[in-house]
Specification:
By secondary structure, the chain is α/β, with parallel strands linked by helices. The chain starts with a strand and ends with a helix. Strand 8, helix 8 and strand 9 form a beta-alpha-beta unit. About 35% of the residues lie in helices and about 15% in strands. The longest helix has 22 residues. The strands form 2 sheets. The chain has an 8-stranded mixed sheet with strand order 3-2-1-4-5-6-14-15, with helices on both faces. A 7-stranded mixed sheet has the order 9-8-7-10-11-13-12, with helices on both faces.
């Protein structure tokens, strides 16, 4: 198979879809790897690193898309990239289709087979290709939230750990999954007073058993959520429903009940965000204010630490990428139901139920898509 890796063109996206290590694995398996010139520079990988791995460096993205049987990326294809996709081509990347009808429409029109990192599952019910970026985003969230809280940036002017005689920042984390757990650990490590909200009692018991001395837990009822939100200096939105649009947990009307200058960090923004007033921002212009509340809603947070993120993502995606290349997408998905769960689009049909429900589009069963 000819595997293509273009340079990411989303604003301030410095990650790359293939590491030189992954390229070497693919070449050793008998595949041809083509990488766009400069694709890895943002993550600290030179073109010579890819050439040493046996990959071929190509200039324009158009040549990558025209030649490759499978495109491996990080972020969802941008409008110009979607026009270059073709029938029968495999796209393997993050998609986050539920809040993005335009992208969905273009992918359906392309005829390509699109497998989304964020809906591939594992035997334990986890999301192995989302998890490493969730870990990164979770650990980044208190860091960027602390910056947002600084008065010069529009925040309350509260120090995360406080000082002797002055209490620490109060941080509320909504969602006790991978993002929320990592966010809570880092926020607590910065000295903040942290509470994690979740609705799944076994998860809260687990968090209490493991981290009971580090942060508190609370049930995420509507009443508890707003009561704790009123006390919070920082609220981190970390709720995920796989493949679906994120639920809106704090409304526009409720912003008036929060502390002036409080920071909302919406890690769920890729799925539409879990605050009603959330809208995607970039690393170049990450923060905006609504009703006196500061919002940090960067849609590719892990891109800020591109080297760490690229290596972590590459470690997770490499086995699936090799399976797709070695067997072809049909056989690879037929052999692995967890990879099949990643199939979102095939030959003009939507194949992921949660996306179809969010966008009001009919869905073809992925198992039927294997036979189409």
């Amino acid at each position: 198979m000819k595997i293509g890796c273009p340079t990411e063109i989303k604003p301030q996206e410095f990650r790359v879809g293939l590491t030189p290590s992954a390229a070497l694995e693919a070449v050793n398996a008998g595949h041809e790897v083509i990488v766009q010139a400069g694709a890895g520079l943002g993550a600290g990988f030179e073109d010579s690193d890819y050439e040493a791995a046996g990959a071929k460096i190509i200039g324009p993205a158009e040549e990558i898309f025209a030649a490759a049987d499978m495109i491996v990326k990080v972020k969802e294809p941008q409008a110009g990239e979607r026009k270059m996709l073709r029938e029968g081509q495999v796209l393997f990347t993050y998609l986050h289709l539920a809040p993005d009808p335009e992208q969905t429409k273009d992918l359906l029109a392309s005829g390509a087979t699109c497998i989304a990192y964020e809906t591939v599952t594992d035997r334990s019910g986890g999301l192995p290709l989302l998890a490493p970026m969730s870990e990164v985003a979770g650990r980044l969230a208190p860091q960027v939230g602390a910056w947002t809280l600084q008065k010069a940036n529009g925040g309350r002017g509260v120090l995360m750990g406080g000082v002797p005689g002055v209490g620490p920042a109060r941080v509320m984390v909504i969602g006790g999954g991978v993002v929320g757990t990592h966010a809570a650990r880092i926020a607590a490590g910065m000295g903040a007073d942290v509470t994690v909200l979740d609705r799944y009692l076994p998860r809260m018991r687990y968090l209490d058993d493991i981290y009971g001395g580090t942060f508190k837990t609370s049930y995420a009822s509507a009443q508890n959520t707003i009561e704790l939100a009123r006390q919070a200096d920082m609220i981190i939105g970390a709720v995920l429903i796989p493949g679906a649009a994120a639920p809106k947990l704090i409304s526009r009307a409720q912003l008036g009940e929060l502390k002036p200058g409080a920071a909302l960090v919406d890690v769920a923004i890729d799925q539409g965000g879990c605050f009603e007033t959330s809208k995607a921002t970039t690393h170049q212009d990450p923060v905006y204010e609504v009703d006196g509340i500061m919002h940090y809603c960067v849609a590719n947070m892990p891109g800020a630490v591109a080297r760490t993120s690229t290596i972590a993502l590459g470690n997770a995606t490499m086995p699936f990428m090799l399976d797709l290349a070695n067997k072809g997408w049909r056989q690879a998905c037929a052999d692995d139901e967890h990879l099949l769960n990643g199939l979102n689009v095939h030959a003009g049909k939507l194949t992921y139920h949660a996306v179809g429900k969010a966008l009001g589009i009919d869905v073809l069963s992925p198992k039927l898509a294997l036979k189409a």
